[in-house]
Each structure stands twice: as C-alpha cells, then as structure tokens.
Design a protein that fits this description.
The complex is a heterodimer. By secondary structure, chain A is an alpha/beta fold. Chain A is built from 11 helices and 10 strands. The longest helix of chain A has 16 residues. Chains A and B meet through helix 2 and helix 3 of A and helix 1 and helix 7 of B.
Amino acid sequence: MQRGEVFGFLGPNGAGKTTTIRMLLDLLRPTRGTAEVLGGAPGDPAVRRRLGFLPASLHVDPRYRGDDLFGFLTALRGGSPPPLLAALLDRFDLDPTRPVGELSTGNRRKVGIVQAFMHRPELVILDEPTSGLDPLLQHEFLELVREQVAGGMTVFLSSHDLPEVERVAHRVAILRRGELVAVDSVADLRRRARQRIDLFVSGEADAAAFAAVPGVVEVDARDGLVRLVVEGSVDAALKAAARLTVERVVTHEADLAEVFLEHYRDRGEERPG
Amino acid sequence: MTVARRFLLDGRRSFVWWVVGAVAMVALTVALWPSIRGQEQFEELIRELPEALKALFGSGEGIPFTSPAGYLHGRLFSLVFPMLVLIYGIGLGARAIAGHEEEGTLELVLAHPVTRARLALERYLAVVGLVAGVTVAGLVAVLATAPLVGLLDGVAVGRVLVAGTAMFAIALLHASIAFAVGAATGRRAVATAAASALAVGSYLLQSLSATTSALDWTSLATPWQWYLDRNLLVQPPTLAVTVLPLALSAAAAVAGIRRFGRRDLRMP
C-alpha cells in the first residue's frame, strides 16, 4: 500500500480478508512470514497508536455508552482529546449518552465509525464498513473517507462489495482463497469487470443482433427478453440495443464472482466448483 | 492502569451485590449464635457423628463447636465464607480474558496501543482487588457484629485477620486458575470447569482424608487440606495456608498471561 491512497481489499466471503486484517492488528500470528504496518510490527503499541480500526461487527459491552467507549479508547491511546470526535458525532447525528446495547444496528455502526476516525489516525483499517448502513449513511461514510484521504489519511478498505470499493478506492487487491490473485487500479478492474444487462423488448428478440457487437461475451434471447453479458464498456451494446424496441432495462452490478471468473480465465486457471 | 480501572468500573455492580451477599451471610451466622451458645446437646450430637460429618461441621482438634472459635470456624470460615468468595473469584477470573474474548470485546481493545501482557496483567490485578474487596467486606462484618453477641470471646482480632487472609489466599488460588486457564484457552467454560473441578475435587478428597489414613498423601496436594488443616482462629497458621496458595496464584497468573501473549485471539 502507498501512503494517502484508498486500498480496496476485495474478495468473496471466506477468502481471508478478515484473517488478513486480524494479522495486521496482531490478533492472529502468521504461521509463516511477517506482517508489517506503518513500517513496524503490528504488535508494537507505537504502531497501533497511529491506527484506526473498524471491525466488521462491533462487539462492545452493551452497557457502555458511546462516551464510555470513546473515553476508554482515548485513554488507551494516551489520553489526548480526539480532534474529530465532536464533528463526527454531529455529522452522523449520534447520541453518545445512550448505551450501545440500546442502539439500532445502524447507530451501532456509527459508533464504530466514530471510534475508528475520531483520533484522525494515519491509517484506518475498515472491515466491511458499510454493511448495515442505509444508502444515505453509506454515502455520508464514503464522503468522510474521501475527505480524510484528501487530508492525508491512508485507508485499507476490505469489502465484498465491488461498487462500494469502486467508488472510493484508488487501487484494488483481489483475494481468493487466501491468495492475492491481482492488484490493479480501479480503472483496470472496471475494464475487466463484466456487467449483465437484461433488455425486455417488444417484438422479436434477436440474439444475432448482438453477436458481433464489441464487448458482448454472452447473448441469450427468448420470449422478449435479451440477456447480455458485457465486458468493459457497454456503449456498443447499448447502441446495438437502440435498434430494438426496448420496454425495460434491468442492469445487475457486476458481481465479484464474475470479476474473479475473469481472473481465473486470464491465468488459465480452472473455474472453482 | 486504564484497563484495570475500566474492568473495575465494569464490575462495580456485581461487586456490590457480592458484598451485600457476604455481609448478609455473616450477619445471619452471627444472629444464630445466641441460640447455639452453650447447647451441650449439640456437642453430644456432634460427638456421635462419623468422622467425615464431623469434619463437615468443622469440629475437631478438641475445639468444641459450641465455643466461639469452633462455631465461627465451622459455620463460616471452613466452608460457607470461602465458598462464596471462591465462586465470585472463579466467575471473575474466567470472565477477565476468556469471557470477554468469547463475547468479542477484546478485539477492539487489542487493536489499540496496549500489549496483550499489559491488558492481561491489569485485569488480573483488578480480579485480585475485587476478590480481596469481598473478603474484606465479610471480615469487617464479622469484626463489627460478632462482638455484639460475644462471638469473639476468646478469639483475638489478629486471628480473625489471619483466617481471613488464608481464606482470601485459597479463593484467589481458584480465581487465578480460572483466569490462567481462560487466558491460555480463550474458553470461559473450560476455565470455570477447571477451577470448579479443583475446588470440589479437593474438598471431597479433604473430607475423605479426614476419615481414612489411606488418603494421607492428599494432604500435601490439595488446597482445601492446607486450608482446613487447622482452626486458624485459635491455632497458628502454616506457610501452606497463606504463602503457598498466594505463590501458586502468582505462578498460575504469570503462566496464563505468557500463553495469552503468544497465541491467536479467537474469533467471536
């Protein structure tokens, strides 16, 4: 990772993303090899003082109020008042006097976000940060990430959600079954990613119309429905579709499995069963 | 001592309840004394009992059950009081690392600038403090209420404090084992089971050894035998009743903390 970038860490569930993060925090010890964070060992308190961490699910004594948690974690870091705390509470409209156990899932996520960013760490490690956030909050959160990165923060963003990573990350690593299969810029990844487009047409659905269109790798046409799988830009496919009478368009976010599939093919590997 | 302070704060409510329990138990025992005092029938009844049951009443070494020292020992110091502190200690010890690890609350804390060793050590010291607190509360209740009904007649205050120290030592030993097993394994049930098995097993062995000489060797090996070897309210303490359990407690804690520092944290 480079300083000042948002580094997306993508992989399907079970690929080893959280395991990697737990090694970066010295919660797990690698069987072989070493991990290095900010130029030091993950277990070194001096290194951890410069970190922020948002776990995938925040486990906190339910009796703690937000204030208790923020105060305790601040004391662990040496006690200097966290510069962003007040602004974050305000921004996410979080009441720090309520016990964490009484908060809704979304509000509990906010508590996690606040504690990870409040001391303006050099590096934040985010494990599935937006799962459980409604779209508005998700937007606000990604906005926060962008701002902080502009201010010099480095972000390690682990996620299985490609669109989320696409929106903020500069570079992306793809993890599969514990192995790093690719490290790419987002632009590269997007170029490889496939999208599925379903066109509901009136009249004859004609597969042949798309057969020679650049980027289209799969066509399936029947009963007034054309299903397309497009690699890279969908421009040519949409122009080809313009010749049909399209009633409705449904697009599906490129799901990670398809991105992976691409990687397997490139590397001549077998498709996982 | 940020971690220890937080642990004490988190445990304050349950601590208050255990203190209330200890004081109530002492008060009840003391309140029953006037109806026991001087009841010769009791003494005769106990004299007829088999050795094992006699040991259960804490009677022996020629100290009559109906004397203040015999009564306090038999009704309070030989089983009820240490058991109460011991159960509190085992629960705390198992919770300090393993309980929190299973709940997943250690993860966030350990992602902060605190080493495993510091976290575990501070929490252990907090456990020691809480166990000592409940012990002291019970002793204060004894010293405050027993003289009102003449239950400290012939018993020196210093002896009560020695007996209290010995009781604290045996309770802390079990708490330390729960703590150490929990720190080493990350499993609360295992930690609780190990310490409880030791408590119950060694108590049973102690009771049996009072009846048969075939089990004499156990007197060397079980904490309860060290503790119940004598009535500390009238007899002088041995090293095995104070120093030995404390030394073993420290050794167990150190071993647990070291293992905790080296292993992987379990996923919640």
